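Example 9 (inverse folding). The structure is encoded as follows.
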């Protein structure tokens, strides 16, 4: 994946905008545009990226990935196994650092969305999630788990004694790790559809 900074400049020039005009459209200073283009600022929030793509007249995926990159379509997440990425045709995505700077995840990532009619804790219809397959606890957060033969999303924490605890969205108490619960992947990004 080529650098975001030069791509912003290229798209700005393609849109016949100077830095000041682009800055006004995005709601930032022209100095910020210069920093983005030079790579001095590498972390750009999701809202700013969306505004930047709109101001440049391009899709968010073109802004982040450039032209000619194969794009992975979201995979459907079902409550029944197997995990979506176990399909040989499943396409991985490269998760741009700018989208989830706090995660700093390295490795495979898959873009998922709940399948029609499926309900999952912590997700609503139309949500997109980036999931990194792992059977190991990495850090506190949301994980895709297999629990009693069903896929579900659980917040996973680790106690001081090293035990893992799993909690659902509406549960006041957490459930201790047991053999019937298996980690499948860590949610490293989540995007919700904007209301119209």
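The amino acid assigned to each position is listed next.
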């Amino acid at each position: 994946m080529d650098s975001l900074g030069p791509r912003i400049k290229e798209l700005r020039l393609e849109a016949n905008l100077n830095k000041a005009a682009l800055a006004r459209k995005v709601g930032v200073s022209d100095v910020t545009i210069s920093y983005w283009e030079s790579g001095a600022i590498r972390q750009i929030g999701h809202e700013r990226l969306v505004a930047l793509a709109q101001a440049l007249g391009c899709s968010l995926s073109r802004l982040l990935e450039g032209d000619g990159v194969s794009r992975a379509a979201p995979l459907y997440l079902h409550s029944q196994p197997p995990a979506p990425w176990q399909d040989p045709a499943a396409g991985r995505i490269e998760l741009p650092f700018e989208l989830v700077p706090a995660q700093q995840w390295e490795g495979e990532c898959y873009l998922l969305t709940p399948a029609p009619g499926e309900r999952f804790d912590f997700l609503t219809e139309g949500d997109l999630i980036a999931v990194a397959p792992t059977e190991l606890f990495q850090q506190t957060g949301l994980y895709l788990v297999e629990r009693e033969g069903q896929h579900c999303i659980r917040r996973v924490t680790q106690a001081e004694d090293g035990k893992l605890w799993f909690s659902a969205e509406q549960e006041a108490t957490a459930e201790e790790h047991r053999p019937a619960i298996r980690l499948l992947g860590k949610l490293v990004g989540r995007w919700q559809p904007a209301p119209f």
